[in-house]
Amino acid sequence: MTAPATLMYATGRRKTAIARVWVFPGQKGFIVNGQDSAKYLKRANLQMLVEQPLKSANLLGQVRIRARVQGGGVAGQAGAIQLGIARALVGLNPEMRATMRKGGFMTRDPREKERKKPGRKGARRSFQFTKR
């Protein structure tokens, strides 16, 4: 499959991380917050995670990705970038929607951190019981 000819933007979210992703067809590179993606996402599994939508669309060396990420940790940011890339690719070529959906890249992971409740030490942890 050849790379489409227009620029596309999409937003991805995961936990508390928000990624703004731009896809530039016909160029090469992967920049996250002004750094090379391998330098920013130090772990190999996170690097592989963000490249999965590109591999499934056979566009790994054919597009340039620029991502601005804020909030959350590095793993949550990688998940946000992955969703943003998948949404941007579908925006460029709507025929990719089935491929992205089948790979599980279009579903936003809804899991968030549970809030701390009043009268407890954490979200669920209660105080230590003493019989007296």
Task: Give the SSE layout.
Elements: E1 8-14, E2 17-25, E3 29-32, E4 35-36, H1 37-40, H2 44-56, E5 63-70, H3 74-92, H4 97-103
Parallel strand pairs: 3-5
Antiparallel strand pairs: 1-2, 2-5, 3-4
Helix pairs in contact: 2-3
Under the CATH scheme, which architecture would be assigned? 2-Layer Sandwich
> Whole-Å distance between the termini?
73 Å
Count of discrete domains? 1
Number of E-type strands: 5
Write down the CATH topology: Ribosomal Protein S5, domain 2
Class computed from helices, strands and strand pairing: alpha+beta
Tally of separate helices: 4
Question: What's a quick, concise take on this entry?
Answer:
The protein is α+β, with helices and mostly antiparallel strands. The chain has 4 helices and 5 strands.
General description of the model:
Helix 2 (44-56) runs parallel beside helix 3 (74-92). The longest helix has 19 residues, at 74-92. Helices cover 33% and strands 23% of the residues. A 5-stranded mixed beta sheet has the order 1-2-5-3-4. The chain has 132 residues and is of the alpha+beta class. 29% of the residues are buried.
Question: Could you name the key traits of this structure?
Answer:
single chain; 132 residues; alpha+beta; Ribosomal Protein S5, domain 2; 5-stranded mixed beta sheet; 4 helices; 23% strand
